[in-house]
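Standup notes
- HV: blocked on the assembly model, inputs below
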Amino acid sequence: MNMEKVLEVKNLKMYYFTSKGVVKAVDDISFELKKGETLGLVGESGCGKTTTGFSLLKMPSPPGKIVGGQILINGEDIMPLSENEMRKSVRWQKIAMVFQGAMNCLTPVYTIERQMMETLQLHKPMSKEEARETMKKYLGYVGLSEDILKRYPHELSGGMKQRVTIAMALFLEPEVIICDEPTTALDVVVQAQIINLLKDLKEKLKLSFIFITHDLATEAEVSDRIAVMYAGKIVEVGTNQQIYGEQGPAHPYTQKLLGATPKLHENVKELAFIPGTPPDLLEPPTGCRFHPRCPVAMEKCKKEEPILNEIEPNHFAACWRCLNEQ
Amino acid sequence: MNSEYLVEVKDLKKWFPVRRDFSQVIKKERKFVKAVDGVSFGIKKGEIFALIGESGCGKTTTAKMIMKLHEATAGQLIFENNDVTNVDKKRLLEYRKEVQMIFQDPYASMNPRFKVRDVLEEPLLIHKLYADRDERLEKMKDGLSKVKITPPEEFLERYPHMLSGGQRQRIATARSLMLSPKLVVMDEPVSMIDLSTRAEILYMLKELKNEMDLTYLYITHDLSTARYFTDRIAVMYLGKVVEMGTPEQIIDNSLHPYTKALIAAVCEPKSGKVNIVKEVPIKGEIPSAANIPQGCRFHPRCPYAKPSCISNPEPKLIEHNNDHFVACDRYKEI
């Protein structure tokens, strides 16, 4: 595999400044994405995975603000860029996003052709004829026929709409595509079809993906590397083999989450769960943020916050236990 | 035979009329969306029965007919050996006391301007149970402690927005149990709940079932939770049940090509599958219920379909062995 880094995130911080206080939704996270790789971001709702996705496009939803860190695309930091420059040269050209719930991100009053045309012509000056050719090309990539161009979103099924949004994200051939729960609202069969499509595109067009989901099972099928988030922090990063293989994940949170994921072909009568709820990020727990729910928490975990440590090659975990066992 | 079932549906149908244009009115053409098109099953006392299928297969419509929120177009609904398909208002009120529902979205199923106490008190007021406030309060506290919401006094004064998703679903469960029903219909009760707490809710529901002698109808699209939560599963496709049996029969020994495809499509948290394109045996998406294919309704997507599947009449649910039913003419060959 080519080891060239397309995206590097260093110490990214995104805080929400609410009337009740500062919510540290993304708190000092760092990761990198290599060319042709799929990186999975997994975590429960409210752990900051979608916020991370939006921060990479520098589009935090108010009252959120990016308060620190660097986002390097092909070595170039996009943090100092103005909103105008972002729009002109970064968003969709270098980094594009497929949003959660495809049903809701297409305008119901425009035909597919018109919405696609808008995206294309805003970024690249081209005639309608050229634009139409481009559209057909990308619709072909996602396995749709061109006659859907004349249709309205309500005439398409959920899976077709999701394919349209994927085609639109591909238009400007970005380096990185962020997929935010692209399959959650879809039925299992359609979900499998979309996952196959993404794998196929990755192969054909040498794309790099960030795949955000709450579902560890889906992640196992698509991601080369997985980063697990909990309460605004990355707690574990490992390859697919390290997380899902025989040995299993290192961090207790990932272990527990994997234990709570139902497995179809195993006959278990009782599923495990993690007692308690994710912490309130207005007042995150001291020390390790997972310690109140952690079955193996020690005295040290309550006081000192662990940092991501390499516990074996390419496998990082932020846990005092993992460090001790080394 | 009859008495073993708490609820039985026989050839239940729900057809929604489609708006017609002028020429269709003149020609007296009538069109229907056949959301549920002849479904029969029975739920035994104390059982957890699952209805599984993709969106649009009619599982929620079936549940709503059992709840009597939809009037059935045809067929019979039998509850405790009484036909309740068509009942008057008074009987309906009694029936609703026995049958309660938990909805999918705990964020939408509660009035945001009601405190938890109002949410829980409403069913008691409607059914005029318990004469005074104190008795009702006792009952509400009792209900909350059953769903492990403690301390109940504090939660009674909270509004839904002050609760987490898991807590809301617990309150919704408490609400459905206020009247001590016999059957609880659950429409995807955990699909909007975080993975880490999902199992906890299901565990609680199972405990409550044993404690209070309940029977559940569990509606879901998620085969993997059904596997460990339910006693029997019915797989629906386009308004019909295509296969029915225990979780082991359905998941480990599935017979119908649709069930097989559903199982093949489920993702599993195992390593080494990233670079493999997964085999999805069926193509396309579920067709519209307004235009049901001829013959076996699954034939356009079925990888094993033969001309006979189109020309023969629709296959009926037949018993393969030990209460394992399948609706496919060729299941033995494939």
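- HV (later): unblocked. Residues 151 and 301 of chain A are 56 Å apart (CA to CA). The longest strand of chain A covers residues 5-18.
- Next: hand off to the docking folks.
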